[in-house]
Design a protein that fits this description.
It is a single chain. The protein has helices at 16-23, 71-80, 119-131, 136-143, 158-163, and strands at 4-9, 27-44, 50-70, 84-93, 101-108. The longest helix has 13 residues, at 119-131. It is α+β, with helices and mostly antiparallel strands. It has a single domain, classed as Gamma-glutamyl cyclotransferase-like (Hypothetical upf0131 protein ytfp, Roll), CATH 3.10.490.10. The protein is built from five helices and five strands, in the order βαββαββααα. It has a five-stranded antiparallel β-sheet with strand order 1-3-2-4-5. Helix 3 runs antiparallel to helix 4. GO terms for molecular function: gamma-glutamylcyclotransferase activity. Substrate binds at residues 7-12, 121. It comes from Plesiocystis pacifica SIR-1. The active site is at 81 (proton acceptor). Keywords: Lyase.
């Protein structure tokens, strides 16, 4: 029996090429909206930069992409998503029958405010958002976040780098 999991990608995995490089070929169900959550770069990466996260925020929304994964692909993805916990959320697909559906996503175990992502990391976001027709206002909000233009490891400890945001 083939187990299918709906996965809501809100970060760099919105880029189909990036996700497929990690887990193999995926089925793409298009863009989806997650209500009562907001996107922030509030997960501290191993390199000291901000990684994407979603946080509860009543009345707000964030956008992402709904993919279909099998169990083996999910296991491979979990290996990449260290520091996150898998959780099931209710998302609103935009294409197809457009009924809300449950989807697995990842939420940071620990939140750190005011982190900056690397510019190259945000570029994966931009690629995925443009590829899936996510609203331009949302693309602008994410891609206008302050970023590290060069390798932040040259700037001291992770806490010091986080304070530069």
């Amino acid at each position: 029996m083939h187990c299918v999991i709906h996965y809501f990608a809100y970060g760099s995995n919105m880029s189909r090429a990036r996700l497929e490089a990690r887990v193999g070929s995926v089925h793409d169900h298009g863009r989806a909206r997650l209500d009562d959550y907001v996107h922030r770069f509030s997960k501290l990466g191993r390199d000291g930069t901000g990684k994407g996260n979603i946080e509860r925020a009543p009345g707000r929304s964030c956008w992402g992409v709904l993919y279909e994964l099998d169990a083996a692909q999910l296991e491979r993805l979990i290996d990449f998503e260290m520091g996150y916990g898998a959780t099931t959320l209710r998302v609103q697909p935009v294409l197809g029958d457009a009924r809300p559906c449950p989807a697995l996503s990842f939420v940071a175990h620990e939140i750190v405010a005011e982190l900056r992502p690397k510019a190259a990391y945000v570029e994966f976001y931009r690629q995925g958002m443009v590829e899936h027709g996510i609203p331009e206002s949302y693309v602008q909000a994410i891609t206008s976040s302050p970023v590290f233009e060069r390798e932040p490891s040259r700037w001291g400890s992770a806490r010091e780098r986080a304070s530069l945001a």
